[in-house]
Design brief:
Length: 253
């Protein structure tokens, strides 16, 4: 990473306050139609047929794998024919916004995205040991950085980044798998100007299929941290979910 990129990333970590953590979900360990099992050393929410040859790895935001909307998306992907896994990369220690002694910058020191990348590898190996032939991965906020690292190292066949946090232009230039970036109009962690740079970088890489979409009138976190009572928010989230599933249907096969 170039010095300029490192400085920008440190600035984003300092800024990863209110918007990064707004609209926290009410966590529910029993949410979803699937179940929790050990996979690759991590407690993992699993949905869909274990006989499917196609898998999707969903990597959560800082609130972790018990978020009901995230599990609902996992079930939706399972209904489309994928074997879906949502690991607990935080080992029972998701970010708690009410803990004044542990602000997000402190929490991130215990839960670095580099650690998430390393812990994702045995999960992917465990999935492949079940007979899966292709794996796609989608990351949300924190999880998007882990997914982009997996795409750079060719551990996955396709990637989707939803309102990414900490993803740099150099990251996008380094991806080796088809990648879709779904961003928000109102997002200081990945503002539209940065997403436009992502789009230009992908356009300059004809060997890698890329797609960048900026959703109007939504903010960071909107694909999984929406209120089910907010009709407009649900509609925007469902549009993003459809784009995600279409991307995986095209490239995870």
């Amino acid at each position: 990473m170039r010095k300029k990129e490192r400085i920008k990333q440190k600035k984003r970590i300092r800024m990863s306050g209110p918007q990064c953590c707004s609209n926290p979900p009410t966590l529910n360990p029993n949410a979803g139609a699937g179940h929790v099992e050990q996979l690759g050393g991590l407690s993992t929410y699993v949905s869909g047929s274990p006989n499917s040859k196609l898998a999707i790895l969903l990597i959560s935001d800082v609130y972790g794998y018990e978020a009901p909307n995230l599990r609902k998306l996992a079930d939706k992907a399972a209904a489309a024919g994928f074997y879906v896994v949502v690991p607990d990369f935080f080992n029972g220690d998701p970010y708690v916004p009410d803990d004044a002694n542990r602000p997000i910058q402190v929490w991130l020191k215990d839960h670095g995205m580099d650690k998430g990348f390393e812990e994702a590898k045995p999960v992917i190996e465990a999935v492949k040991s079940k007979g899966v032939s292709a794996v796609g991965a989608a990351g949300f906020c924190w999880g998007a950085k882990v997914v982009v690292e997996l795409a750079k190292a060719e551990f996955i066949q396709a990637a989707v980044l939803c309102h990414p946090s900490f993803v740099t232009l150099d990251d996008i230039k380094g991806v080796k798998a088809p990648i879709a970036v779904l961003g928000a109009e109102h997002d200081h962690l990945s503002p539209p100007a940065l997403l436009k740079q992502f789009e230009e970088a992908l356009a300059a890489k004809p060997e890698v299929d890329g797609f960048v979409k900026i959703f109007p009138k939504v903010a960071h976190g909107w694909t999984v941290r929406y209120s089910v009572e907010d009709v407009a928010a649900v509609k925007s989230a469902e549009e993003a979910h459809q784009n995600l599933l279409e991307w995986f249907a095209k490239y995870v096969k």
